[in-house]
Amino acid sequence: MQHHLRDFAHHASITGLLFSVLTQFTEKCYGTNTSGAFVIVDVRDRSFIGEDVSQKLLFGIVFWFFHLVSDVAGSGKRDSEGTGIPGPILSTAKLLSATPLFMNQVNDQDNREFSVFISKLFNGTYFGERDESGKLIPLRFDFRTELGVYCHVGKQALPVLLNEVCVRAFYMIRRFTMEVVEKQVHRFTDLEKLDWTCIKPSGNRTIDRMLTVASVTFTLADTTDAALHAAIESGGNWVIFSGRFVARYNYVGAGRAAVAIVKEVSNEKKEAQLIHERMILMEAKADLMFQHLQEFKKQLNERLTAYLVEDIEAFLEGFNNINAGLRSNDSNLVIQGNVTIQQALGREAQFTNQDEFDDLMDSDLPLQF
User: Whole-prediction pTM value?
Assistant: First the structure.
């Protein structure tokens, strides 16, 4: 009753198809034994093994598909004696149970606990209930059950998808209108003026935040609706209330809201990190600027001091020459002192001795002060 689950080639998944083709070329079956350990055994009935490559591919792919279709009939009715086949979810879980990650989890009967759990899901004993006479009514988690889950998830995803489409559509319409007004678009040829990066409803913080608000609002409204309906239908019975609430709750919407919140938190974290990095960069620039200012101040003081020392020495030398010239009635010495002072002030003297002064006085050149 468990061979559809234990034989990986009976799984309705990509891995099931790969193991089916592998079986054709190796003539071995791949799966788990009763305790959940991975085993490889020889194929006993070779009538299902192709003789050449084309026939092996035909048996491994086409016959595998129709064989699974026929096995689905085993789960078509609750009272059917067939075992059905595991769906993609249970198939993946069974494949993972044979990996080293779960192989070390062994119970007292030397069975892999995760493998036992999957087997109970498949044969219906895990969710099954007993009637008044104590007979077990199995509730199998097989391909048909998973198909129902997919349909239910699809129904829940429709309003979530509609909510997101509406938010993105309104964002795009508003941004498009703003661009048209700003760029003064009056004809179709003017559309090339538009900045479509500002119009597309993705890849920016505004649309992410709008989707977060919309998703959380949708989830809160859906939770309230599910709680109200469950409360009315339960009549105060908490057990019935829990069942009704779980059945009506939109898990897809809650998942979308969780993803939006995580993305919003991530964006806020990135912005905070960016602000922090900018502050560090500004502090580094400020420290560098302060160091440059200190160095400039130091150089300025040194140059100013040297300049003042040179000027003071020049002024003293000039005044000393003038005083000495006045005491000795030496006009050339007085003129030389005057020239020294003018050079310290950055000016060029018109004469440097008595003869040049006399020539200047006899010429028509103006005397500069």
Answer: 0.52
